[in-house]
Specification:
By secondary structure, the protein is α+β, with helices and mostly antiparallel strands. About 20% of the residues lie in helices and about 35% in strands. The chain has a single domain, classed as 4-Layer Sandwich (Deoxyribonuclease I, Chain A).
Length: about 300
């Protein structure tokens, strides 16, 4: 069966699963064709803005979120808008840890904001991005990029954390996965600075001879592919764009694609598609990749 038909069937199932609480999708080994040859390792990567666990209906339901993620059957998932003891909207719960436990995956959480708790002895209020992984996570870094704070009444662009990097060991290959959430404002100035920061940070993982590791950048970029501020990314990265355009936002009757899986040299894109779930105000994007082994 062609790869595209396989992934289309899986993602159609994802939309149904999120609405009907059916059993989880089949394991990846059951739905993927083997790699073209032994030089490549298969890797399924997804990105999902989970809207702090609230669906398109604005109802908080973290189990519905977990069900939508499970249906993607991805090896690594970058998440945005993740609350960790943040507030009443997510019942003061640790969404990162709960999702990892529910899905049986490893988790890395990279806070954008880490604020004092509402009462002495309570956990800190945190909000940021996260990565779920079926594979071992060898190392993690919470990088700073330019941000315009939503917690400051008079913000100015300044470095702040929340650009997460995790090195995962996938089928014997180290892959550097980065999760990001770019500025949402109409003015692209902050996103332009964030793209420059992103390029710089990813280049720091390369050696003096310009040899870079396998790199995957995922996230909510809050801009469409043709946006001028994103153009520098496409000089080094390949956009795993679904052939049908892959619109991701808003979740119901989406009008644009602002959620991305992008890859560096050494990684081939086999296919990509968007799942039709309403478990968030965004739809998740999932891509089947082939990661080249060796140097």
């Amino acid at each position: 069966m062609p790869v595209r038909r396989r992934i289309a069937q899986l993602l159609l199932a994802a939309g149904v699963l999120s609405a009907m609480t059916a059993p989880p999708a089949a394991h990846a080994a059951d739905v993927r064709e083997p790699p073209v040859d032994g030089r490549y390792a298969p890797l399924r990567v997804a990105t999902y803005n989970i809207h702090a666990g609230a669906g398109y209906d604005q109802v908080f339901d973290i189990q519905r979120t977990a069900q939508a993620i499970r249906a993607l059957d991805a090896d690594v998932i970058g998440l945005q808008e993740v609350d960790v003891h943040w507030g009443e909207r997510s019942e003061w719960r640790d969404l990162a840890r709960e999702l990892a436990r529910s899905l049986g995956m490893r988790i890395y959480f990279a806070p954008i904001y880490s604020l004092d708790p509402p009462a002495p002895g309570a956990p800190r209020r945190e909000y940021g991005v996260a990565m779920l992984s079926r594979f071992s996570i060898l190392s993690t870094t919470n990088h700073e990029i330019t941000r315009l704070s939503t917690q400051d009444p008079n913000p100015v662009p300044a470095p702040a954390p929340g650009f997460g990097e995790a090195v995962v060991r996938a089928h014997g290959v180290n892959v550097h996965v980065y999760a990001t959430h770019l500025d949402y404002r109409t003015d692209p100035a902050v996103r332009r600075a964030q793209v420059a920061d992103t390029r710089r940070i990813m280049a720091e993982d390369c050696d003096r001879r310009g040899r870079c590791p396998r790199q995957v950048l995922v996230g909510d970029f809050n801009a469409e592919p043709e946006a001028a501020e994103l153009a520098p990314l496409w000089e080094r990265l390949t956009d795993a764009a679904p052939r049908d355009g892959g619109l991701t936002y808003p979740a119901k009757d989406p009008l644009k694609r602002i959620d991305y899986v992008t890859v560096s040299d050494g990684i081939r894109v086999r296919d990509a598609a968007v799942a039709g779930t309403l478990a968030s105000d965004h739809r998740p994007l999932v891509a089947d990749l082939l990661v080249r082994r060796g140097s």
